Amino acid sequence: MxxxxxxxxxxxxxxxxxxxxILSTVLLAVSGKTLVVRPKxxxxxxxxxxxxxxxxxxxxxxxxxxxxxxxxxxxRELGQLREKILEYERISRDIVKxxxxxxxxxxxxxxxxxxxxxxxxxxxxxxxxxNYFSVFTINRGSSHGVKRYMPVVARMGGYRGLVGKVIEVSxxxxxxxxxxxxxxxxxxxxxxSRYEGLVAGQGELASLLxxxxxxxxxxxxxxxxxxxxTSGLGGVFPxxxxxxxxxxxxxEAYQTSLEIEVEPIxxxxxxxxVIVLVTE
Length: 280
Hints:
The protein is an alpha+beta fold. Helix content is 37%, strand content 29%.
């Protein structure tokens, strides 16, 4: 008995299969209430059951193989679709970028046509990593007619404004000191009231400029949003170049002059194209 139990346990699947096969044969051989066993029919029934099982198993294996093949094909197609989507997204971004560049170049061309002075269009190609990008480089130099202390202007949002001045020149590039640099000073004038002062940078890209040495008599005539332009004094910057707009006015009792906070016309963080004015 122990040997039989061990045999059944070891060949469980075969025993189950044979049991089911025998039961199927018996059931197929039963007619009415009388059990008639015909060896020839029993053999045919056994063969039929075996053949049906084999056919079903083969069909299941074939369907499984086909499903796996279809799944692999679906995965390949999904991967290809994902690559196409990424490519379309890259193309879309490139188109948007080209449109922006085209718009900027068109604006630069229009601005260039408006400037009556001799000038040199240029592209910002580098920013100094130290001191919060306080100096930037353009792709025009002495070979293009650029010299030290020439003023640099730009146009943004339909408005032209002062950017800074050239401080270093090489054959094919130049360094520009922007208005927000703490070493930058520009002689300015309130366009409406004509009061003058000195506009200086605060050393940070996002900070406002500061106009100092404005007479206190101007306090009643200054309004929020008033335009400040270059006065032309000092000989570096031509007169009437827009610098910025009034954002706040400080008037301390112990001071003999006003301090005016000025928002620059030019957004320096978005600056890409500029124009160097040839003033000599």
